[in-house]
From TrEMBL:
It comes from the Bacteria. Keywords: Oxidoreductase. One of its GO terms (molecular function) is glyoxylate reductase (NADPH) activity. InterPro entries: D-isomer_2-hydroxyacid_DH (IPR050223), D-isomer_DH_NAD-bd (IPR006140), NAD(P)-bd_dom_sf (IPR036291). Pfam families: 2-Hacid_dh_C. This is D-2-hydroxyacid dehydrogenase. The keyword Oxidoreductase applies. It comes from Ramlibacter lithotrophicus. One of its GO terms (cellular component) is cytosol. Residues 103-276 form the D-isomer specific 2-hydroxyacid dehydrogenase NAD-binding domain. The keyword Oxidoreductase applies.
Length: 313
């Protein structure tokens, strides 16, 4: 097997570097910054492993982007198609992990764990009666692999579940009540907890605005999808006014979340740094997909999680 030069962007999920180093024939380049990524590609590397995209990464040698994230909204897909650049994603690699993280955020909100941690840092002993998940109404927006895993975990906990999906007719899972996006307002009115597990819209427009947050009322919002799905100023207003009980956010409109954002100081908000999918198991699972796609790159097999193109090695 001939050598394959792979550039790993300096921001990568756990153990992706270990997975790549363990593969025979892979020459791994680990630059310290974006400029180093460009230099490595200009030196002839054909493969870039990344979930971060910069326009300057579009170099003549680039033939395959092995995405370490599930989304594709950050990439110039039309340019990739024009140049025959393959883009593969990590879709499905972290579905179970993200689903567990979504549950952690739901529990942190309903059991008021975020508030308790703030009291802990202030050395303040104060009982904070929370609410139980059993019996709550959970609306899951986005019934892909992550949303389905959340639903499967929610059923034994005794939650009522509604799903919202772009094309309900294509759904084949465990949720019985699945509606189209035109029923989002109704889902917000029905739900105690609204959980976003959907990808970004192609134009990065928000799905959840002031009207939907008003309908959610004294409920909770959890977002493990994309920050662009939520009108963040409207979310801040709903939280500040008390109309919305709380929000658990693994993603935000701008990442990293700017220090001046009012979300940081809200006791009814729990924020994690877009790390819902990170775990020690990520690297081996991603590496297995990479290995199969490496064979496809050399013409020996089919692509997995293919988003664009079919490059010739």
């Amino acid at each position: 097997m001939s050598e394959l030069h792979v550039v790993l962007h300096p921001r990568f999920p756990p153990a992706v570097d270990t997975a790549l180093r363990s593969m025979p024939g892979v020459v791994l380049h680990c630059p310290a910054d974006d400029a180093g990524v460009v230099r490595a590609l200009d030196a002839g590397a054909q493969v870039l492993a990344t979930f971060t995209w910069r326009p300057e990464f579009l170099r003549p040698s680039l033939r395959w982007i092995a995405g370490t994230g599930a989304g594709t909204e950050q990439y110039p897909l039309a340019q990739f198609r024009e140049r025959g650049i393959v883009l593969t994603t990590a879709a499905g690699v972290h579905a179970e992990c993200v689903a567990e993280h979504a549950f952690a955020l739901m529990l942190a909100l309903t059991r008021r764990i975020g508030e308790a941690v703030r009291h802990m840092t202030a050395r303040r002993w104060q009982a904070l009666p929370g609410e139980q998940l059993a019996g709550k109404k959970l609306a899951i927006v986005g019934l892909g692999r992550i949303g389905e895993q959340v639903a499967r975990r929610a059923q034994p906990w005794g939650l009522e579940i509604m799903g919202v999906k772009r094309d309900p007719k294509r759904y084949d899972g465990c949720v019985r009540d699945v509606r189209g996006e035109d029923q989002l307002d109704a889902a917000c009115e029905w739900a105690d907890i609204l959980l976003l597990a959907a990808p970004a819209r192609p134009d990065r427009s928000s799905l959840l605005g002031a009207g939907q947050l008003e309908r959610l009322g004294r409920g909770w919002l959890v977002n493990v999808g994309r920050g662009s799905l939520v009108d963040e100023p409207a979310l801040v207003r709903a939280l500040e006014s008390g109309r919305l009980r709380g929000a658990g956010l693994d993603v935000t409109a701008v990442e990293p979340l700017p220090p001046e954002s009012p979300l940081w100081g809200m006791p009814n908000v729990v924020i994690t740094a877009h790390n819902a999918g990170d775990s020690p198991g990520f690297g081996p699972r991603w590496g297995a997909i990479f290995a199969r796609n490496r064979a496809a790159f050399t013409g020996d097999g089919e692509w997995e999680n293919l988003a664009t193109g079919r490059a010739a090695a």
